[in-house]
Amino acid sequence: DTGVSQDPRHKITKRGQNVTFRCDPISEHNRLYWYRQTLGQGPEFLTYFQNEAQLEKSRLLSDRFSAERPKGSFSTLEIQRTEQGDSAMYLCASSSRQGNTEAFFGQGTRLTVV
Amino acid sequence: AQSVSQHNHHVILSEAASLELGCNYSYGGTVNLFWYVQYPGQHLQLLLKYFSGDPLVKGIKGFEAEFIKSKFSFNLRKPSVQWSDTAEYFCAVTYGGATNKLIFGTGTLLAVQP
After folding, report:
1. How far, in Å, are A14, A91, B95, B98 from residue A104 at the CA level?
2. Is B34:B95 a contact under the CB 8 Å cutoff?
3. Between chains, do A43 and B44 touch, taking CB under 8 Å as contact?
4. For residues B78 and B87, is the Cβ–Cβ distance under 8 A?
5. Could you read off the pLDDT of B57-107 as tens digits, one per residue?
6. How far is B79 from chain A (nearest CA, A)?
């Protein structure tokens, strides 16, 4: 499968714990996005990378959230000191830099904070 | 603020009925418009997109959408739905800029009864 891959698919964690999610984009795509989706809502933009540079962060991304894309390939999203309000589906998407192109989404990581 | 409105949250149709899902976006200059679909248990997939040119866009599986600039609308249509069209449909917009981050509507859950 050459689509966007996310790991893990599901994560249950206790409040206060740290979690890290991984996203592997489509190999030739240099743009990578993280979104968060809660029940009954559409995905909300969190952050964006072009190659290894993080070019935009949403105000939704509190200080407890950090994202990296160290070599311009895979990306990680870490949430520190998780709260129940962090429970959501975390989606990763990638796109090509060439012209107007669509974003391709992974299947997401569903986080449940108990 | 940049936003997308989807007027129908839940739609129930019988097979062979016609479908129209509304989508309006807030003014923000140059826009690219998308409809994504999420089938049960699957990731977001692109149905169709509009960047420029003919405002009537044809997508996969018999779907089409019409961009009406004066109404800031991009409604999705299908003349005859099938049971397999049961899914959640998201309208999304990117506004002019390098990020190309998607702004999503809240989604419309379509249930097609056989």
Report:
1. 31, 10, 18, 17
2. no
3. yes
4. no
5. 999 999 999 999 999 999 999 999 999 999 999 999 998 766 678 999 999
6. 25
Q: B100–A108: do the CB atoms touch at under 8 Å?
A: no
Other CB atoms within 10 A of residue A53 CB: 9
Q: Can you give the pLDDT at residue B35?
A: 97
A108 interface with B at CB cutoff 8 Å: yes
Q: Which A residues, 8 through 67, put their C-beta within 8 Å of a C-beta on chain B? A: 31, 33, 35, 40-45, 48, 50, 55-56
Are the C-beta atoms of residues A77 and A65 closer than 8 Å to each other?
yes
Chain segment A47-99, per-residue pLDDT in tens: 999 999 999 999 888 899 999 999 889 999 999 999 999 999 999 999 987 66
In the 8-state DSSP scheme, what is residue B96? S
> Is B51's CB within 8 Å of A100's CB?
yes
pLDDT, tens digit, 9 for 90 and up, residues B23-49: 999 977 888 999 999 999 899 999 999
Pairing of strands A88-95, A65-68: unpaired
Q: Is the dihedral of CA A10, A13, A15, A18 positive or negative?
A: negative
pLDDT score recorded for residue A98: 65
Count of residues making up chain A:
114
Q: Do A41 and B107 touch (CB under 8 A)?
A: yes
Partner-chain residue, chosen from B36, B49, B106, that has the shortest CB–CB distance to A41: B106
Looking at the DSSP assignment, which residues form a beta bridge with residue B21?
B76
